[in-house]
Structure formats: C-alpha cells, structure tokens
Amino acid sequence: MKLRAALIAASLFAPLKAFGSEALPSVVSLDYCADQYVLALGDAGQIKGLSRESRMPHSFYRDRAMGLPQTGASIEEILGIAPDVVVTTWGGGPRLFSHLRTQGIEVVRAPYEDSIAQVAANLTHVGAALDRVDRAQELADDLRLRQARLEAKPGLALTAAYLTPGGVTAGRGTTVDTTLRLAGFRTLGEEMALDGWPGFPLEQALRQPPDVFVTGFYDQPSAQEAHWSLARHASVRSLLQNHLRIDVPGRYLSCNGLFIVDAAELIRSQTDEALQREKEEAQ
To answer: Which residues contact 45 (CB under 8 A, 6 or more apart)?
Structure first.
C-alpha cells in the first residue's frame, strides 16, 4: 500500500515540476560514493538528498555535505522528494531503478573505477545529467593535469606496502596499487605477485621488508575494532615503527578511483618531506 500511495503521489505532482523555478535538475544520491560525485559537481540548491553516510568520516566531501538534506534509498522516500535525477554507485537495485524510471526519474550510475580515464568518464556522465557539463570538464581536465605532473616526477627507488587495521594489503589490479605507483613507488603487490586484497604477507615481509608502509583507514572508528587483526602482531608493529610510515585518511581511499590523484599527491608529498628530513638529519 505504501508503494502504491507513493507512486500515485508522484504521478500527481510530477507534472508540476516543469513549471518550477529551478534552473538545474534536482538530484538525490543513494550511497556515499555517489554522494562524492554529486557534491563534486552539483550546486547546493539542486541537491535534494544525500545518503545517510554523506557526513561520516569516510566521506571525502563531508564538509560540503553539512547542512544538506539526507535521505534513505527507499522508493517511498525518493518518490516523496521527486528528483529529476538519482545517482548511484552501489546503492539501490533493479526493482528500485525500474520504478524510478516509470516516474520519469533519470537513474545515473557512477560505477567503481580503477583508472583516472574511467573516473573522468564518470564525471562527464554525471555532469551531463546534472546540467553541470562545464564543471565536469573542468574537474576531468584537472585530474589529467595533476596525473601528468605526478608521472613527470622521478620515480622513487622504494617499495611501498599498503596495510589496513584489518591486516589487509593491496595487490595488483587494485585502486590502491594504482595510487602507490602514481606516487612513484614500486609496490609490494608487484614484487610478491599479489593480486586483489590479500592478507599482509608477514613472513615474506620480515625476510624482505618494504621500504615504506602506507597505512589506510587508521583514522576511522572501525580501526579500534580490529583487536584480532594481523596488524596488531608484534612483528607488524615493529615493521611500522622501524620503517617510514605514511598514514592516509580513509576518506581518500573509500571510493574506488575518484580520489586516486588526491591520495597519490598526499602520499608523494609526505614521502618527499620525510626523505628530505632524513637527508638533513644525516648531514
């Protein structure tokens, strides 16, 4: 009954939107990764609903989300808002999207991506739906420019290993591996032929330690919950204490692809500063 009532209400009031004063399409996003695209591209006035995680610590644009409305991903809530566009990365599902489309609401997917070229395509796709084509082009061009600047830097003759509080590392084919290579490192995934998201290979790392540890999500509340994680092993703690460690806030890593350049810039900058300090102290 609730679904039927929502559909009836939407059909009654949807025609009135054509006579509204809003110049830009109104938008709702269904998950915190979709939130990032909407917050990066949208005008505050056209954002009618963000996910309930949009202000959480793992949301990159959490500051922009403050004061903006939040909503759930139910058909009743969305049809009650009656946006022109719904953006999703992983939120929702086929049944929801089908109902939204029957009411004339455009559903736009911004899927997880592991390359800057693919992220730029996402920006273009979402930007077109929000009538923010120029803004999307500006952001895509900026990503490519900053990528080129990073790639122009001399490579670091260092191997970097990624580690989370849960004891997971990053192998080949992951966004984090791409990020570390963009920052100028060789990676543990490459050197040990690791793929995906395996557990940290402690025995191998003790025999052949990486030069740098890049740790992620240690700033998140969940980091305190991994009491039985390999990351708490005394040998892992010793490795972290005796090697250069770059800690990356979780918001840079929580949505695949979109913040590759931001994360790589942060990692490279902190690494360069640490190496410079070591050089000065050695003199």
So the answer is: 22, 24
